[in-house]
Specification:
Number of strands: 3
CATH architecture: Up-down Bundle
Strand order of the largest sheet: 1-2-3
Strand content: 5-15%
Shape: elongated
Number of helices: 6
Helix content: 55-70%
CATH superfamily: dinb family like domain
Low-confidence stretches: none
Order of helices and strands: HHHEHHEEH
Largest sheet: 3 strands, mixed
Radius of gyration: 18 Å
Distance between the termini: 32 Å
Structural class: mainly alpha
Oligomer: single chain
Mean pLDDT: 94
Length: 171
């Protein structure tokens, strides 16, 4: 972060590269593999990130900047599962990456004081834009961790043979 810049922008900018690095050895079948019926596949995680980027975070960002004390609805990924089920992982990632680049570029153009803008989140109460940026980075990192665990289970666990016995993966 540079002086006079909003927080978390370097982390938000780094997320697509982190995801790309984790997925470097995956094929389409790997991306669509589900560890259990009630768990997300990598493809579904990517679809969720793409959807959240525009329909949650960018929408909230615009409302923070264009309205006085906007009321923000909580976001629930479970409400959008139908959008994630058959999503193409490459298309989802490309869309996420494009949106993220645009969003970070826009965020970098804002003054640091924009972080003090206030909204009323219906579940969390009064929040600032700066707090939302921290939550956005936490959201990213949670899904980076989730994707890493899926990659570990799908690509590397079986190949580790008896060395894998000490691992308790929960993808």
């Amino acid at each position: 972060m540079t002086e006079n810049e909003l927080p978390c922008l370097d982390m938000l900018e780094a997320t697509p590269d982190l995801l790309r690095g984790l997925m470097c050895e995956l094929d389409h079948d790997d991306a669509c593999w589900k560890p259990a019926p009630d768990r997300f596949s990598i493809a579904e995680v990517l679809a969720h990130l793409s959807h959240s980027e525009g329909h949650c975070y960018r929408l909230r960002l615009d409302r923070f900047l264009n309205e006085e004390r906007p009321e923000l609805e909580p976001d629930d990924a479970q409400m959008h599962l139908h959008l994630y089920r058959d999503a193409d992982p490459e298309d989802s990632f490309d869309h996420f990456e494009e949106q993220r680049e645009t969003n970070v570029e826009f965020l970098r153009s804002l003054p640091e004081s924009a972080g003090e803008r206030i909204a009323l989140h219906k579940a969390a109460g009064e929040i600032t834009l700066s707090q939302m940026l921290h939550e956005w980075a936490m959201h990213d990192l949670g899904h980076v961790r989730q994707l890493a665990e899926l990659v570990r289970a799908r690509k590397y666990l079986a190949g580790a043979g008896p060395l894998a016995e000490g691992y308790n993966l929960k993808p």
